[in-house]
Automatic annotation (TrEMBL):
It is found in: Membrane. Its main location: membrane. It holds the Pfam family Glyco_transf_15. It is a single-pass type II membrane protein. This is Glycosyl transferase. The lineage of its organism: Eukaryota, Fungi, Dikarya, Ascomycota, Saccharomycotina. Belongs to the glycosyltransferase 15 family. GO terms for biological process: cell wall mannoprotein biosynthetic process; protein N-linked glycosylation; protein O-linked glycosylation.
Length: 368
């Protein structure tokens, strides 16, 4: 029997599925899955939930938070609630977290979208995509329901886990090992979408040098001692994070600085490079963790363990033909080199295969 209870703009639900008896007394971490979804993402998020539950959460029964800039439909709430093994929370994002801030020049933003559309840049013409990136960069962890949790694990529609992950409670791993951010994929960003982001980041730290962690991972971001951004970034569609970090004064100051610059709208800054620039500069190397061998797939990239023993132990159903982690265009090799980690036998040397445009930081939109 379902028990849905509305509390303000948050709807609470529970599937009623009992946990396995062996885990009746398991003490879960203060953590939740988080998904930003639309009602139209219904089938895609059900597929993702089924994958996460089967490969991990059927053992631990962590909660889920689903957020939408529009109210969820009753059908969405009913069917999603029935699929999760923990409590489900459905949030209508408040207006102050979704939309243009007052300092944005709307005409200038429109010119930027038109320019990107003409240049066939993915999501370049979309307003909602920019609102989403800004929300994921600076606001999701401030939602009232999210303030009840310390850790989050982000899940998007149409993702899949092709290997079992329940041999480790990754939320507990984060706490015990004092990790504040974890990732699984690190591709190269589209350079056309991050115009002036590197320049703005360097300006921020020139004004706030005390915030640069002495044991940072800054060298992961650049191949020429900081002159240029090498486009390496952690793919945020699968990330685990400590929201105390994202709510910290250091991260807040960093985000607000970038937000005032306007790059979410005058360019198409994504939350993935923003998160990456933040955690590699504001945190120590030891506080950022790479999770290998997850069997995680999000088109067009994915991870599939190449070690046969791991594939058998984790019941992986993926093909290494689609493995992106140790391939050209992946920054995982760079992460290993920066952190002086021993690469697997099939590891390769990082080589940036990105084709950069000349004068990438040249002014294009007035002061852009």
């Amino acid at each position: 029997m379902q028990n849905n209870q509305k509390v303000g703009k948050v709807t609470l639900g529970r599937s009623g599925n009992p946990p396995p008896p062996v885990y009746d007394s398991y003490v879960r971490e203060n953590a939740t899955f988080f998904s930003l979804v639309r009602n139209s993402d219904f089938q895609g998020i059900l597929s993702s939930i089924d994958s996460v539950e089967e490969r991990f959460n059927k053992v631990y029964h962590y909660d889920w938070v689903f957020a939408n800039d529009e109210p969820f439909t009753p059908a969405f709430i009913e069917h999603v609630t029935a699929r999760v093994s923990g409590s489900a929370h459905f949030v209508h994002i408040p207006a102050q977290f979704w939309g243009y801030p007052p300092w944005i020049d709307l005409d200038k933003a429109e010119r930027a979208r038109k320019n990107m559309k003409e240049n066939k840049i993915k999501y370049g013409a979309s307003q909602s995509y920019r609102h989403m990136c800004r929300f994921n960069s600076g606001f999701f962890f401030h939602l009232p329901v999210m303030k009840n949790y310390k850790y989050y694990w982000r899940v998007e529609p149409d993702i899949a886990f092709k290997c079992d992950l329940f041999d480790t409670d990754w939320f507990r791993f984060m706490r015990i090992n004092k990790k504040k951010y974890a990732f699984v994929l690190a591709p190269l960003e589209l350079h056309m979408t991050v115009k002036n982001l590197w320049r703005s980041t360097k300006m921020f730290f020139s004004e706030n040098p005390d915030l640069l962690h002495p044991d940072n991972s800054f060298s992961f971001l650049s191949d020429d001692n900081g002159d240029n951004y090498n486009m390496c970034h952690f793919w945020s569609n699968f990330e685990l994070g400590d929201m105390d970090f994202f709510r910290s004064s250091a991260y807040t100051k960093f985000f607000e600085y970038l937000d005032q610059v306007g790059g979410f709208y005058y360019s198409r800054w994504g939350d993935a490079p923003v998160h990456t620039l933040a955690v590699t500069t504001l945190l120590s190397k030891d506080e950022v963790h790479y999770i290998p061998d997850t069997g995680y797939f999000h088109n067009p990239n994915g991870n599939c363990p190449r070690d046969d023993a791991i594939r058998r132990a984790r019941r992986c159903s993926c093909s290494t033909r689609f493995e992106h982690t140790w391939s050209r265009g992946s920054c995982i090799p760079k992460w290993y080199e920066v952190n002086e980690l021993e690469k697997p036998s099939y590891g390769i040397k990082f080589k940036n295969v990105h084709k950069f445009a000349e004068n990438e930081d040249a002014d294009e939109y007035d002061d852009w």
